[in-house]
Design a protein that fits this description.
Blueprint (H helix, E strand, L loop, with lengths): L4 H11 L9 H21 L4 H24 L1 H11 L4
Helix pairs in contact: 1-2, 2-3, 2-4, 3-4
Length: about 90
């Protein structure tokens, strides 16, 4: 499995305040970004996997919603997460 519990804890501790804070927008955005990169690599070799393609589009939409939320609430945190994860605006 590509996303183990240890990898999740690592993502949450790096991008959230601590490893327990799994609901913060930054940690959720980091988790979605990791999953998006994995699905993108999968789709490069499996072009006709339309189920994965739909899941990828849903994840991108969820991440975009969280980024918009964070942008409205605190622009500095938004800029920091964009810079850390190299996400296009």
């Amino acid at each position: 499995m590509y996303l183990t519990a240890e990898k999740k804890q690592e993502l949450f501790s790096q991008h959230g305040n601590n490893a327990v804070n799994t609901g913060s927008p930054e940690s959720q955005i980091a988790l979605f970004s990791y999953r998006i990169s994995h699905l993108t690599n999968h789709l490069k070799s499996n072009r006709k996997d339309f189920g994965t393609q739909k899941a990828l589009l849903k994840l991108v939409g969820k991440r975009r919603s969280l980024l918009d939320y964070l942008k409205d609430r605190d622009i500095n945190r938004y800029r920091d997460i964009i810079k850390k994860l190299n996400i296009r605006k």
